[in-house]
Amino acid sequence: MAIKSLKLTTLADNMVYRAGLHGQWGLSILLELEDDRGRPRRVLLDTGNDRDPLLHNIRKLKVDLTALDAVVLSHGHEDHTVATVEVMQASGGCPVYAHPHCFLPRANVDKTGKRRRAGVPEGQGLAEIEAAGGEVKLSSGPAEVVPGLWTTGQVHRASFEDVPAPSEGARRLVAVDGEEMDDAILCDMALWADVESLGAWVVTGCAHSGPVNTLNHVRELGGFRNIHALVGGTHLVSRPDDYIGRTANALEGFNLRLISPCHCTGFRAAAALMSQFVDRFVLNYCGRTITAGEWPRSPVP
């Protein structure tokens, strides 16, 4: 089922190129679309890392959250989940889609053994979201959020991409059924839709599963030969140059017509992707609007 239109507005990101908005290490993207019957729909992907800057940007950009149809949490990390309760309060309540592992207890352990709480922040858990009017829907498989817009569910990982340790000697842990283990971030998922006359659009949070794995997964889910657009985080920050180059080369195999990275991509990887994709590259940032079928107008590439 193809949707008729799609517009993406980045409400929170590391970078800002628009006066009056605030940046943060986090991500939140508003998707506005018309479904196959032309009905308007609004979905928010992630709720950022810093509450006040996000809420400031929402006010500054004059985003009306009362018309929100759903929230999707791409994974259970604090830089994507800090203001879900506040969004529920502003919207009057709506469905919140996530993977079953999203809200599990997490911890980061440094090389000295010192632990730090990680994952969804305190006060933003299942009970608090539901008390604020949210209806939490957990699924490891794909879920249709609104007609024509889907989550990927848990991404099948078959490419060269991996999930590295946070740093040498450090560990990232998650408690599954009460047993603590290394966190492979299985809760990572993205959004995708078939946009009329264009094809598949994929919007990622961090793509911890790898952007190549994510696009392969969407291609299988939707029966697509090519992917038209990739927008969002690629988690290539701190990756070595050869890994970044291998990723860029693999992404060429999807015949992308638009690639717009942000958040956890990093400057070196963004530069490499821009060099690889040249006139198909658009840098994403806080305040950027991308409309399917229109090339973004901005002095920033």
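The above is record 1. Record 2 follows with the same two-line structure.
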Amino acid sequence: MVVAGGMLALSVGTASTVSGQQPVEDEGAAASSTEQGQTPLDESFDWRGREWRLQKRKGALEDTEFKLHSRTYYFYREKYDGSISEALATGGWAGVKTGYFLDHVSFGVTAYTSQHLSGDDDRDGSLILASGQEGYTVLGEAYVDLRLVEKFHLYVGRKEYDTPFINRNDSRMTPNTFEAITLQGTTDLGSEGATLKYGLGYVDAIKDRNSDDFVSMGRDAGADADRGVYTAGALYKKGDFSVGAIDYYCPDVINIGYAEAKLEVAISEKLKPRFAVQFIDQRSVGDDLLLEDGDSSQQFGIKAELPVGGALFTAAYTNIFGDGAIQSPWSGYPGYTAVQVEDYNRDGEDALMLRAAYDIPWVKGLSAYALWVHGLDPDPAGLYARDEYDLNLQWTAPKGVLKGLSLRLRYAVVDERGGTGDDLTDLRVICNYTYTF
């Protein structure tokens, strides 16, 4: 796989969805090993979106969908230095996506909110509330969807997007959203089920997940300049094989390229291991407003998954090399070993992850996973190796009056081998309820 330079790739998730970038609330823990807040490349370039797919087109008003998503979130983290971030918040989002007027024009609007229930000012930093433990409300989505032809769409305005390095990062109260103009499409290749998904666009600004303001992509990345991101890319998929590349070019700030390939091997009816490889290339560009002149860094990652009945066993390895850490300013970090707390993306850092997940059969909708990530010492002096241990328990109401309700408990311990010698602990309790009509 080769990551092209220049201005390469953006794709869209969709309005107001709980996307597939994580083990989401309505999936079992054994469905995927993708961490919350991430978007795999093969789940990008979805012109239809996940939960706003229209099943009929009798008329725009008939096809209009409304979605209410309630979320209550408790967050507690004791850091390596003993300081604590803690808060309890409630909120969520409400949105509408119309059908297509004249079979070509649709509109989407979504408002997001997070309101303070508990949390002292001296325990700020949970990211489920704005700075200072303040609540916020924002019109995060307001866009036009133009269906130019079947399976080819133009999106203009504020919208959620899901790609490896520009995504919702929906691991707190509300997701990231973006101001952008994008083109996306899907082409069927022959009669054997092969498809090519593709997208390109310009992203001008981002509303971070705990903010009510849109700021330029360049400033959000840490540069003292207003810059947007040009992006384009493609994903080829045939059966259980996919390969694609995507690139994000922010003038004078940074260029990030990403490539990934996935393959499932059917050894027998019950034995179907899955394999994936990823490559990230990051480098300074133009006036070098963020990185040093000539700096570049890379990451290589490999992952293997083995489904066995209701269980999923995963092993992954990543390696960072080059001139520094890999940046991820507009998304959850997509590395295979990035987990609840640590991303393992520091300069020169290697990491190995082992994960086991299980859909518990005697309680419908209940699942769990546990994982361990073993990190090695990064290159810079004063940084130390870390091991992270995560436990996740989640329940999703399968049907009936509680359908749409999910409860999730997440607990992590990070052991830093050096420094102060103190562990970091992270506890999250999340309640979601989604209603669509």
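The first strand starts at residue 65 and ends at 78.
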